[in-house]
Structure formats: structure tokens, C-alpha cells
């Protein structure tokens, strides 16, 4: 698949490297592509990374994502799968959307995009290499079944097994995993490492 990743930071590069190894074609979208070198894959403008790919990943700071993606415009996102991995928090880890979620805001601003929230509840090394821990869970929220099937396949490329992918339902359910950042921050402090994750058992 051809995947445009918005952002060139730690998460963007980690996702890009792992999906590239799985055979996908990656393009990074940046506010300043000329300053970035190749990063192992082409770096274009944010608008081109959306226009030239059917799957777009939001790996920008969650507190800025709505403004950044809204700035690209709604039309270029029409029909695209928008995979949102961002956490919308202030520098002191307060929720930017305490009674909602970034994913819901993005879906409302980009109504023809198929937004799927996923992977924001784990550190980047865990999200892209789940087999480095005992079996844990990854969540997925979104209104479009086809988009969620696409994202399921992309998660499996990282090693997430069927039973580990928990479909929470529509995009409104994204506020649950987004608010997990509160316990994630506390756990990271308590455990002294970001290398942990949640496992759902019934
Ligand atoms: N770090 C983790 O383990 C982890 C885990 C789960 C989720 N997340 C989420 O993933 C997202 C990316 O995290 P990260 O650690 O990769 O962040 P990061 O290293 O700060 O990278 C974010 C990238 O977004 C781009 N960007 C676009 N608009 C921006 C703005 N207004 N201010 C700053 N950067 C902007 C920048 O790329 P250009 O300069 O090229 O535009 C920047 O390199 C965040 O929402 C974070 O909460 C992170």
C-alpha cells in the first residue's frame, strides 16, 4: 500500500521504517520538507502526502493536529483512510479535548475522510513491535468498516494478532483510548519505562 505519514518525528519515522520493511511505500509529509533529507523515504509537503496516498497517518503533536490537518483542507482527504495515532495533550499532560477526542474533532472537520483511531495507547516501540512484550492489546475506533479492515491489515504487519486487536466501535469510542494517556503518563512515571502495555481479558 502507499502510505503518507504526516510528521517526521519519532513516531512517524518508526512507523515508516516498519511499514517500509513490510513492503509498503512510504512518503512523509512535513511543514518544511527541504530541511529533512530523505529519512529513508521521500519527504514532501503535507498537502502532497495527502493527495498522493490513499492511506494517511496523523503522527503530528495531538495538540496541533486539528489545525495542521484542517490547514490542508477537507477536500484532499475525501475518501482517504486517516489513521490517527496522536495524543492531544498539553505539555503538562492535560487533555486538550476532555469531553471529546481528537479523532472525533478530525472526523467532524474532515467529513469525507475515514478516520480510524489506533495505537495511541502504547509507546512507539511497542506499537510497532508488539512481540517484544508478552501478548497485549491494541484498540481501534472508527465509523467505516472498510477503513478498519485496512488498518487491521496494517496492524498485522507489525505483528498484532487477530485476538489482540480490540474494535471499540465508532469514532465516538476513541475518547476512551485517548483518555488512556492519563494512566499511561502515570504508569510511565511509576514503572520508570514506556515499555509496557494494556492487555484486555474477559
Ligand atoms: N512517542 C510515542 O511513543 C507516542 C506513542 C503514541 C502516540 N504518540 C503520538 O504520536 C504523535 C507524534 O509523536 P512524536 O513523538 O513523533 O512527536 P515529535 O517527535 O514531536 O514529532 C511530531 C512531528 O509532527 C510535525 N509537526 C506538524 N505540526 C507541528 C507543530 N505544530 N508542532 C510540532 N511539530 C509539528 C513535525 O514534523 P515536521 O517538522 O516535518 O513538520 C514533527 O516532527 C503525537 O501526537 C504523540 O502524542 C506518541
Structural class: alpha/beta
| Bound ligands | NADP nicotinamide-adenine-dinucleotide phosphate
Poorly predicted regions: none
Instruction: Tell me the number of structural domains.
Output: 1
The biggest sheet amounts to: 8 strands, mixed
Question: Helix count, per DSSP?
Answer: 8
> What is the 3D shape?
globular
Instruction: Report strand %.
Output: 15-25%
Average of the residue pLDDT scores:
97
| CATH-level-2 architecture | 3-Layer(aba) Sandwich
Detailed description of the structure:
By secondary structure, the protein is α/β, with parallel strands linked by helices. It has a single domain, classed as NAD(P)-binding Rossmann-like Domain (Rossmann fold). Helices cover 36% and strands 18% of the residues. It has eight helices and eight strands; from the N terminus they run βαββαβαβαβαβαβαα. Strands 3-2-1-4-5-6-7-8 form an eight-stranded mixed sheet, with helices on both faces. Strand 4, helix 3 and strand 5 (81-84) form a beta-alpha-beta unit. The radius of gyration is 16 Å and the shape is globular. The protein binds NADP nicotinamide-adenine-dinucleotide phosphate. NADP nicotinamide-adenine-dinucleotide phosphate is lined by residues 7-12, 30-32, 36, 59-62, 64, 68, 85-87, 120, 123-124.
Amino acid at each position: 500500500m502507499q502510505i503518507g505519514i504526516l510528521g517526521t518525528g519519532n513516531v512517524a519515522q518508526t512507523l515508516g521504517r516498519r511499514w517500509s520493511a513490510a513492503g509498503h511505500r512510504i512518503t512523509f509529509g512535513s511543514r518544511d520538507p527541504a530541511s529533512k533529507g530523505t529519512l529513508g523515504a521521500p519527504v514532501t509537503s503535507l498537502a502532497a502526502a495527502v493527495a498522493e496516498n490513499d492511506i494517511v497517518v496523523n503522527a503530528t503533536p495531538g495538540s496541533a493536529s486539528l489545525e495542521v490537518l484542517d490547514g490542508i483542507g477537507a477536500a484532499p482527504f475525501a475518501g482517504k483512510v486517516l489513521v490517527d495515532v496522536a495524543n492531544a495533550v498539553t505539555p503538562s499532560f492535560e487533555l486538550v479535548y476532555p469531553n471529546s477526542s481528537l479523532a472525533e474533532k478530525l472526523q467532524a472537520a474532515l467529513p469525507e475522510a475515514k478516520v480510524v483511531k489506533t495505537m495511541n495507547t502504547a509507546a512507539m516501540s511497542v506499537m510497532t513491535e508488539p512481540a517484544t512484550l508478552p501478548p497485549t492489546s491494541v484498540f481501534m475506533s472508527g465509523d467505516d468498516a472498510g477503513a478498519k479492515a485496512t488498518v487491521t491489515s496494517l496492524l498485522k504487519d507489525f505483528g498484532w494478532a487477530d485476538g489482540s486487536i480490540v474494535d471499540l466501535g465508532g469514532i465516538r469510542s476513541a475518547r476512551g483510548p485517548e483518555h488512556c494517556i492519563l494512566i499511561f503518563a502515570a504508569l510511565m512515571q511509576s514503572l520508570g519505562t514506556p515499555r509496557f502495555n494494556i492487555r484486555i481479558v474477559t
